[in-house]
Specification:
- The longest helix is centred in the N-terminal third of the chain and has 23 residues, at 2-24.
- The protein has a nine-stranded antiparallel sheet. A nine-stranded antiparallel sheet has the order 15-14-13-12-17-18-19-20-16, with helices on one face.
- Strand 8 and strand 9 form a beta hairpin.
- It is built from eight helices and 20 strands.
- By secondary structure, it is α+β, with helices and mostly antiparallel strands.
- The protein is 23% helix and 30% strand.
- Helix 6 runs antiparallel to helix 7.
- It is elongated and about 80 Å long.
């Protein structure tokens, strides 16, 4: 109850402080109550580091100009289980994140709080810290608990000074970096920018051109050597390529398949294709490489592009479709698809066996009759598997019985599970 009361008091203090800040500001760029607690521009941000009890996330800015990119490292240390570290390239959403923290603005300035209040909002011994490095300056913030109702977090620079309330997303984006900030798309340029693409694979090469590229409704892919001949195969195939997304990043400089267990058979690495994209001026927009790795019965696909900068694993099912349809795109005959093995045919004579593996009685004698001595009036007796046939109808029933026995044996043979392909 005391904790709730503390949050309520802080909320009131925040509103009062917000009004005073708002009346003092005249730039019109801040929302009611916002106050800058770290002044720097997003373009000068160099590093962000979040350290918590079970996770540690770092965003590093690498390169300059066109070579500028982001590398995100996400370390997880669960209470139970093995610690993990994932490294990946950050997407354009990192740019948006930097705008949230540079300049870093708090929703409220709650002022200096009493020691008891500091303890109740988890700032006495903070378990989380956020460090910003920007424009040659570095500032570390202690992060406390969540505000009642909104979920926003309490923060303070250093061990003393005023306490601030910062937006929850500042922490959530980092805590879920793998899902919010990873570069999953293979390219950052737009489809309307692509004038042509060269497709290279299986020893063949073809240049495709995008007609009416600026109109997504009319745009069509054609062979550059036959631009007036429409072939929907090209467009359908490139759409599948565009749907490929990074599922998992390999470490920097790691080769495709390095995450697999080679086993006794080793790894078989096969280059599948290379795509190079060009704009209307003939300048290269980007490129994609794709390889297939076989480790025993396991098959995985990996891609690398100008956006991912390193090899990434992609979903196998979609990558297999792209691989299978590549040959027709290049003018080659499609490979026959693997068919599951058919059930083995019944052995010779197996159809003559009676149900329950009992041997058929010679001469179609009725059960219980002595071989060679047909029952009177049976007309030849009943065949195994058929009912007993009396009078003149016995011969027909015997034939039906024999057919029934054959069918039963065939059904038994057909009931075997089909062998797995390749067995």
């Amino acid at each position: 109850m005391k904790g709730v009361l503390t949050h309520a008091v802080l909320a009131v203090l925040g509103l009062v402080s917000a009004y005073l800040v708002w009346t003092d500001e005249d730039d019109g760029k801040r929302e009611l109550g916002e106050v800058t607690i770290f002044d720097c521009s997003a373009s000068k941000m160099r590093k962000v580091h979040l350290k918590g009890e079970q996770n540690e996330v770092t965003i590093d800015v690498r390169g300059k100009g066109d070579a500028k990119h982001y590398v995100v490292e996400d370390k997880r240390t669960p209470p139970k289980g093995k610690a993990t570290t994932k490294s990946f390239v950050g997407s354009e959403l990192v740019d948006e994140y930097f705008k949230k923290v540079a300049p870093f603005r708090a929703l409220r300035n709650l002022g200096k709080l009493k020691p008891k209040q500091i303890e109740e909002i988890d700032l006495k011994k903070p378990k989380t810290t956020l460090t910003l490095s920007c424009g040659g300056k570095t500032q570390k913030f202690a992060i406390g608990g969540s505000a009642y109702g909104s979920g926003d977090r309490y923060a303070r620079a250093g061990q003393s000074g005023p306490v601030y309330l910062v937006h929850a997303d500042v922490l959530k984006d980092l805590e879920s970096a793998e899902f919010r900030l990873m570069q999953r798309e293979l390219h950052r340029f737009k489809k309307t920018e692509i004038e042509a693409v060269t497709v290279d694979g299986y020893g063949r090469k073809r240049r495709l051109r995008q007609r009416d590229r600026l109109d997504e409704q009319k745009a069509q892919w054609v062979d550059a050597q036959s631009p007036d001949r429409i072939n929907e195969l090209y467009g359908n195939w490139l759409e599948r390529v565009e749907r490929l997304r990074a599922q998992e990043y390999l470490p920097a400089n790691a080769a495709p398949g390095s995450d697999l267990s080679a086993g006794d058979s080793g790894l078989a690495v096969n280059e599948v294709m290379k795509l190079v994209y060009f704009d209307a001026q003939g300048d290269e927009l980007g490129r994609t490489e794709m390889v297939r790795v076989e480790a025993g019965q396991q098959i995985e696909y990996y891609l690398r592009s100008e956006a991912t900068r390193r090899w990434v694993k992609v979903p196998r099912s979609l990558a297999e479709q792209v691989d299978e349809d590549l040959r027709p795109v290049l003018g080659l005959e499609a490979l026959p698809k693997k068919q599951p093995a058919q059930p083995a045919a019944p052995a010779a004579g197996e159809g003559n066996k009676a149900p329950g593996n009992a041997p058929a009685q010679e001469g179609g004698a009725a059960q219980g009759a002595t071989p060679g001595e047909p029952k009177k009036g049976s007309g030849g007796g009943a065949g195994t598997g058929g009912g007993s046939g009396g009078g003149t109808g016995g011969g027909k029933n015997a034939a039906k019985g024999a057919a029934g026995a054959k069918g039963a044996a065939g059904a038994k043979a057909g009931g075997k599970k089909p062998a797995a392909a390749g067995e």
